[in-house]
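cron nightly-structures :: item 1 of 1
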Amino acid sequence: MKYIPTLTIAGSDSSGGAGIQADLKTMSALGCYAMSVLTAVTAQNTQGVLGVQPISEEMVSLQLQAVLEDIPPLAMKTGMLFDTSIIEAVATALEQVDIPLVVDPVMVATSGDRLLSEKAEEVLKQRLLPLSTLITPNLMEAEVLSGVKINSQSALYEAGQYLLALGTKAVLIKGGHTADTEATDYLFTDKGVSTFSKERIETVNTHGTGCTLSAAITAYIARGLSLEKAIEQGKEYLSEALSSGKRVAIGKGHGPVDHFFQPQRSIKQ
């Protein structure tokens, strides 16, 4: 009998709403055995990021070695990677294994603070995206990575196809930052384009939503769901977490979602 191991490779959030903390909460709430490789420490709260201290490339590599040699995950994700050396270290380790990988290209926090250096963007595209099963950029991140200004449906499709051509198996461009009444995400694969929509939840508690969605998708992939079903269930989980936490006041800015609105027991197989 074994647990379902998952791995998040990301930065910490001292306020607990995003980053490693959001990933661990999400994966645990969905019944998985959640592990972590820390890439950076942030001084952060619901109002913004006060500072970032990256972990050394050597320590990131050692964390990955320790986990992958002893408890190989059934699926894993990356979040905040911060700089070129960390991306290189992560890519070097992950190209040695064949494990589903969700890349959340974290570039800017909800508060507007930059979490990925500009120099690292090209390295992310060249080294990490070709290793990924899925990348999950929001509209702004998709614009930065593709160089396409997404101001129309055709531009969104152009950006999606450009990102797909970088070598990833699938691209999920998230529409959560639009003003539409529904939050619609667009999935690009070699089979075409499909959409996933949920009613928009009116709330200021949106801290860590991107981390939470990518972590949920990772957990469902580890549990054996197809990519499309994992995305569908991941969006459902995020929607419920947003709804459950929308009236909870914590912090003075953008509060977190309610990751434990209906936690599951650890799944043992």
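cron nightly-structures :: done
The chain has a mean pLDDT of 94.
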